[in-house]
Amino acid sequence: MWTYVIIGVVVMLVAGLCFALAVAGFSGENFVEKLRQLDATPNSLRATTLSYVESINKRYFGGKLRLQDCPEFEDHYSRGVVALSEKTMQSNSIASFAIVSHELGHAKQDFSGDTLTKHWKLRRAVKICGLFFMPLFLAGTVLSLLWVFEILPQLVYVCLGVGLVAASIVIFFLAIILKWREIKIEREASDFALQFLGEYLSDEEVKLAQELLNAARLTYWASLIRTLLSWTLLTGKTKLFN
């Protein structure tokens, strides 16, 4: 009986691993495909993204948001500033509206509470801790092995080694927590984005924008999966501590 239980567990683990890897591999291609499709689809208002942002800024933020130029594909929000590329500002595509609305969603998070500020602080702290992840893990592993092979037989060395490895594991789980929090924050920003879009675009256009935002959020899930499975060496590189 236990043989079948073990086989069942192994099969479930393998199936779960395959599914996770499939999601990680599919997410990027899916997002790029939807982005390319909606980037060629103009909105029914024929309005530019810049005029849309200015309208939202005046209506929801009292004109307090500042606009800033940034390189293409680096549109973002940071501390009262919405940074947009020239291409994004002059575009009237549904893709540009969706992306900018998502950044405006982050602005609403920032203006209505401290969730985003706390996340930024946590991300900075985890990034600093991440610098010590590999040195702690390697040092702990070496000390533990030296004790196992009785090169350093004193008990203090294995205790120190286990402690260093444990510290590196804590840092690893902090990275997981950061990415989990990031998914929740991105979900809320997308919800705000759909509220903004619903006041300007048709229901069908909002639905298309939602599909793009969902595809973008799937890439964050993929990043979480890659982080969780990074020790297997089966996933591509991911920014573990960003």
Question: Describe it for me?
Answer:
With 242 residues, the protein is mainly α. The chain has one domain (17-232). 73% of the residues lie in helices and 5% in strands. It contains 8 helices and 3 strands. It has helices spanning 2-39, 49-60, 86-90, 94-112, 115-130, 133-148, 155-198, 203-228; strands at 66-69, 76-78, 81-84. It has a 3-stranded mixed sheet with strand order 1-3-2. The radius of gyration is 23 Å and the shape is elongated.
Q: What is the alpha-carbon Rg in Å?
A: 23 Å
The residue-averaged pLDDT reads: 87
Number of helices: 8
Series of secondary-structure elements, N-terminal to C-terminal: HHEEEHHHHHH
Structural class: mainly alpha
Strand order of the largest sheet: 1-3-2
**How many domains comprise the coordinates?**
1
Q: Considering DSSP H and I runs of 4 or more, what fraction of the residues is helical?
A: over 70%
For the secondary structure, the number of strands is 3
Low-confidence stretches: none
Q: Please outline the major beta sheet.
A: 3 strands, mixed
| Beta-strand share of residues | under 5%
**Multimeric status of the protein:** single chain
Distance between the termini: 45 Å
Shape: elongated
